[in-house]
């Protein structure tokens, strides 16, 4: 497999982004992008991503974040959403990093690589010393991914609809 490159979107990525939307069409849209809306200009989308990175025009309850996309041979096959800080909700359930891989590319080590590169970004760009990564307690793939990247289990909390537990892991970046 060729090298996966995890990076922010650039102006020349519109076709790859739109193709990625199709690749992720079997999932809820948030797995690909939290902010994309049909009909929005790609340049506007890029500006919103930049605003979120810099903490401009954030809705109440949101923290600055970086949305990075995993490119393989020019195709977007995954993404990582990295929150720069934690609020109460993220400290409990969401954590610093959320990642997704398109269905045809799962179980090939791509999530592990996306998280690995996300951790480098957190250390080198955001200057974080440690990050919180969470997943549903029954998501064996994510648990393995987090553990392979140095995750240390802290605890589990009752989160979604008071029926699903969320596992919480800390990863030291020092």
What does this entry look like structurally?
With 174 residues, this protein is α+β, with helices and mostly antiparallel strands. The protein has a single domain (5-128), classed as 3-Layer(aba) Sandwich (Aminopeptidase), CATH 3.40.630. The protein has helices at residues 14-23, 42-54, 88-94, 110-124, 140-148; strands spanning 5-7, 65-72, 75-83, 97-101, 130-136, 152-160, 164-172. It has a 4-stranded antiparallel sheet with strand order 1-2-3-4, sandwiched between helices. Strand 6 and strand 7 form a beta hairpin. It is globular, with a radius of gyration of 16 Å.
Distance linking N and C termini: 29 Å
Number of strands: 7
Q: Shape from CA axes?
A: globular
From the 3D structure, determine the CATH topology: Aminopeptidase
Residue-averaged pLDDT, rounded? 91
- Global Rg: 16 Å
Number of helices: 5
For the biggest sheet, the summary is: 4 strands, antiparallel
Summary of the model, kept short:
The chain is α+β, with helices and mostly antiparallel strands. The chain contains 5 helices and 7 strands.
Q: Which short descriptors sum up this protein?
A:
single chain, 174 residues, Aminopeptidase, 3-stranded antiparallel β-sheet, 7 strands
What is the fold's blueprint, element by element?
Blueprint: E1 5-7, H1 14-23, H2 42-54, E2 65-72, E3 75-83, H3 88-94, E4 97-101, H4 110-124, E5 130-136, H5 140-148, E6 152-160, E7 164-172
Antiparallel strand pairs: 1-2, 2-3, 3-4, 5-7, 6-7
């Amino acid at each position: 497999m060729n090298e996966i490159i995890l990076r922010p979107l650039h102006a020349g990525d519109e076709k790859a982004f739109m193709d990625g939307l199709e690749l992720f069409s079997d999932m809820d849209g948030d797995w690909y992008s939290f902010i994309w809306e049909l009909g929005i200009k790609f340049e506007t989308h890029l500006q919103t991503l930049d605003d979120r990175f810099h903490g401009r025009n954030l809705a109440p309850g949101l923290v600055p974040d970086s949305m990075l996309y995993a490119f393989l041979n020019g195709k977007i096959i995954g993404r990582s959403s990295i929150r720069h800080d934690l609020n109460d909700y993220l400290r409990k359930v969401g954590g610093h990093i959320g990642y997704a891989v398109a269905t045809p590319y799962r179980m090939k080590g791509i999530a592990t690589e996306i998280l690995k590169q996300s951790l480098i970004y957190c250390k080198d760009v955001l200057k974080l010393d440690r990050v919180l990564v969470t997943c549903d307690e029954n998501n064996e793939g994510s648990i393995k991914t987090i553990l392979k990247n140095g995750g240390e289990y802290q605890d589990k909390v009752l989160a979604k609809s008071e029926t699903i537990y969320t596992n919480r892991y800390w990863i030291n970046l020092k």
